């Protein structure tokens, strides 16, 4: 094919062609170009720029594996072959915008940086990746065991998974908030953890345990148990009917206060013993195996026990303040308060009695009584009238106890006496009111004798 030089010199009619007159070399002022099919495909201008029009491609490689082009909207580098696209530099590679703003930087033997509006947002480091700003994930983030997500200038907040355990490591306080910045959880480093409801604190850990702000609801199901102690020694529950405080493992239940900086007892419940009630740290009431004990500890002129009845002191009324009931639930006596007096009563209804006979030896029995004037050893300055209990044999029911009796081991064993009382005297007592029937009978006998004598005297005086 011959080379032709024509007088024309355009892309449609190149000045230098072959047999194809619309394909060849054309030139103009400070420009030389190549055209095919009458269309400019490549030009070299006076600035040394090699120009390829839109949708034209520079193809490299035997199989055209690399293509560089511009489609009118986008600039394209296409690796269409089977190998990798490799960009090499002996120092660094920078990708910039048309106004010279940094978009990406690749530094040899160092970091890679990605930019947004000329500001670094992601940077590779020797330990991983450093991110400046927020991260929005459209899917999940996969990381190896032991590798952490670190947040903050000093890496103060870290998330990681190691050996089957998920960790949140805080090197500063941790605050969990909702979308309105309302606090939900506040974890204070070397301090408390606080839980909130609708912005209001409800639970707070303290050095000594917990502080609750509000009520505690243990589900809506009965028989749920609140347990305390390493061995669950204290349980609090509701079984659907009763509220229960259950002391396990023979442990005492104590209600105390912090008066005076100490644990001052108010109530003590012993699972194998009694219940004790205190006033200002001093025990005043105690249940025992035999019943109850009221302890008036002061030596002052104060009241040990007060029994108040609503009818007492009301004109025309009386109220039974105390009722003494036997094992068969029959009342054996009472203490009744009236308007201005108190009656100490014992059972005396005829329906309770049988085998009654008149007392015929009242004087004889009365003469066996030995009244004395004496003083008690505890009170040597006060002389009183009375009897020695063991000498009142005429009315044995007036005496309680045995002469010279002491507290025995069997009484300690059955719980009626304390161990500390073993061997101490158990003094006899007397109910002097039980002498009244004998005194009455003796007086009636004496009156009878007096009346006989009076009759005889009157007869003698009349004769």
Tell me about this structure.
This protein has 463 residues and is mostly beta strands. Among the domains are: 307-356, no CATH class; 362-462, no CATH class. It contains three helices and 37 strands. It has helices at 362-366, 409-413, 436-462; strands at residues 4-5, 16-17, 24-28, 31-36, 39-45, 50-51, 57-60, 66-70, 75-79, 92-96, 102-107, 112-116, 119-125, 128-131, 148-151, 157-162, 165-170, 174-177, 183-187, 193-197, 200-206, 209-212, 225-228, 234-238, 243-247, 253-257, 264-269, 275-279, 282-288, 291-294, 319-325, 331-337, 342-346, 372-374, 384-386, 399-400, 429-430. It has a six-stranded antiparallel β-sheet, with no helix packed on it. Strand 24 (234-238) and strand 25 form a beta hairpin. The chain starts with a strand and ends with a helix.
Q: Termini, distance in Å?
A: 206 Å
Largest sheet: 6 strands, antiparallel
| Total number of beta strands | 37
The portion of residues assigned to helices is: under 10%
Strand percentage: 35-45%
List segments where confidence is low: pLDDT < 50 over at least 5 consecutive residues.
none
Silhouette:
rod-shaped
Report Rg. Answer: 57 Å
Subunit organisation of the chains: single chain
* Average residue-wise pLDDT: 91
């Amino acid at each position: 094919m011959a080379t032709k030089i024509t007088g024309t010199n355009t892309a449609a009619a190149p000045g230098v062609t072959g047999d194809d007159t619309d394909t060849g070399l054309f030139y103009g002022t400070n420009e030389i170009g190549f055209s095919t099919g009458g269309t400019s495909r490549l030009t070299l201008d006076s600035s040394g720029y090699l120009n390829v029009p839109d949708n034209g491609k520079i193809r490299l490689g035997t199989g055209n594996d690399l293509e560089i082009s511009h489609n009118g909207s986008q600039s394209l580098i296409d690796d269409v072959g089977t190998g990798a696209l490799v960009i090499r530099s002996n120092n660094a590679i920078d990708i910039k915008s048309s106004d010279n703003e940094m978009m990406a930087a690749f530094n040899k033997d160092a970091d890679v940086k990605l930019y947004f509006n000329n500001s670094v947002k992601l940077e590779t480091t020797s330990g991983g990746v450093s991110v400046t700003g927020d991260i929005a994930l459209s899917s999940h983030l996969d990381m190896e065991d032991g590798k952490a997500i670190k947040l903050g200038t000093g890496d103060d907040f870290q998330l990681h998974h190691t050996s089957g355990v998920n960790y949140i490591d805080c090197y500063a306080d941790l605050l969990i908030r909702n979308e309105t910045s309302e606090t939900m959880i506040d974890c204070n480093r070397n301090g408390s953890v606080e839980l909130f409801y609708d912005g209001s604190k409800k639970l707070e850990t303290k050095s000594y345990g917990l502080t609750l702000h509000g009520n505690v609801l243990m589900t809506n199901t009965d028989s749920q148990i609140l347990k305390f102690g390493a061995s669950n020694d204290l349980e609090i529950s509701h079984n659907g009917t009763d509220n229960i405080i259950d002391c396990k493992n023979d442990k005492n239940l104590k209600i105390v206060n912090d008066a005076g900086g100490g644990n001052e007892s108010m109530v003590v419940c012993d699972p194998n013993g009694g219940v004790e009630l205190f006033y200002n740290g001093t025990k005043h009431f105690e249940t025992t195996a035999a019943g109850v004990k009221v302890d008036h500890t002061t030596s002052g002129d104060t009241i040990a026990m007060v029994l108040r009845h609503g009818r007492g002191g009301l004109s025309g009324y009386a109220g039974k303040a105390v009722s003494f009931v036997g094992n068969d639930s029959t009342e054996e006596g009472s203490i009744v308060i009236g308007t201005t007096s108190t009656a100490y009563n014992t059972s005396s209804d005829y329906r309770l009695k049988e085998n009654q006979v008149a007392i015929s030896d009242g004087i004889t029995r009365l003469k066996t009584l030995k009244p004395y004037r004496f003083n008690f050893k505890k009170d040597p300055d006060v002389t009183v009238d009375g009897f020695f209990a063991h000498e009142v044999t005429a009315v044995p029911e007036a005496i309680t106890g045995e002469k010279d009796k002491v507290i025995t081991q069997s009484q300690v064993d059955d719980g009626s006496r304390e161990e500390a009382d073993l061997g101490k005297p158990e003094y006899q007592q007397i109910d002097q009111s039980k002498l009244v029937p004998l005194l009455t009978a003796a007086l009636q006998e004496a009156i009878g004798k007096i009346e006989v004598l009076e009759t005889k005297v009157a007869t003698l005086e009349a004769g």
